[in-house]
Amino acid sequence: MCRCPDLLSSSHGQCDLWGLPVKNATCLAVGVALSILATPALADCADNMHRVLSCDLGDKTLDLCLDPYSVNLLYRFGPPGAPELELIRPLFSATYVPWPGIGRAIWEQVTLTNYEASYEVFWMFDKIDRLEKGGVIVTSGEEVLAELHCTSSPEQDFETLYQAYQVEGYCRGMSGQGMSLEACE
Question: Dihedral angle at the C-alpha atoms of 49, 115, 179, 142, nearest 10 degrees?
Answer without folding.
Answer: -130
